[in-house]
Amino acid sequence: MEVPRLDHTLNSPTSPCEEVIKNLSLEAIQLCDRDGNKSQDSGIAEMEELPVPHNIKISNITCDSFKISWEMDSKSKDRITHYFIDLNKKENKNSNKFKHKDVPTKLVAKAVPLPMTVRGHWFLSPRTEYTVAVQTASKQVDGDYVVSEWSEIIEFCTADYSKVHLTQLLEKAEVIAGRMLKFSVFYRNQHKEYFDYIREHHGNAMQPSVKDNSGSHGSPISGKLEGIFFSCSTEFNTGKPPQDSPYGRYRFEIAAEKLFNPNTNLYFGDFYCMYTAYHYVILVIAPVGSPGDEFCKQRLPQLNSKDNKFLTCTEEDGVLVYHHAQDVILEVIYTDPVDLSLGTVAEITGHQLMSLSTANAKKDPSCKTCNISVGR
Hints:
376 residues; elongated
């Protein structure tokens, strides 16, 4: 099946199958709006009887593409030469602030058999709600268009990054991960009240909670995966965890083997920055066969725990040895509850550096180091 092409100058060569539908310059042609209003110099002729699309269906949705089809009456169907597609982001308070702006969303496609694929990371962002409506059009000899009325408006939401997209992020993260440093503990900083609450209301066990929306907008773990955040970074000169933290003055430390061992699986979750020179890598540790493990197995690239660029667990002389990447900040999510009795809680001597917090932090969409060629 031929995938439709755009008609920038209305003389473009036919696109090959699965070719991207690109933006139509509004200077090349001004389409009428969804109410059928047209500019007097729009280059679109007075409306004649063309079939109006109805029963629109959206399918095969990815983070930066979808397939669209509809039904039409057979009357004048053979006169249709083009489809006009009006695609708009549905505005809401949680909308993706980093979607490319000032990009026309009126698309013109050659009339081809349906369904047809609409693809383009410059006007589609992952995990974002859109509205779409369609017109049929007939191009006249003088270059004007006869158009139908607009169809009904349909809403849909684009998908998260797939494993393919996450693997692209993974490969970019590997480039800057740096050499491996030895470590022995995972740690989690919080306020004193947090640990008091855990002891009083959760029987001394920290409980997994839903991950916030920090990081890549298309990350499949944001707002979905339940887990507990840990750090493992160490200071280069001491080999120990830093004494400063953005998350609180009390720190829970636990031996690395309690969380990361041959009975757990390791997954790559995300790679991002926050308009800074340093980058973050999110990893997920899940006990084998746990609900968290099943969630990750379907959505995330799995890493070899003994051999990867970020976090390793190897055995030397019968003892488990741990290393972490030096040049990225690792955020480790453990997907099961963790009892405080397995480690220690103590006050740190350093400062609480709130500026380093990544809570709900948005990814820099312009960074060439940590972005891939799909929606941000």
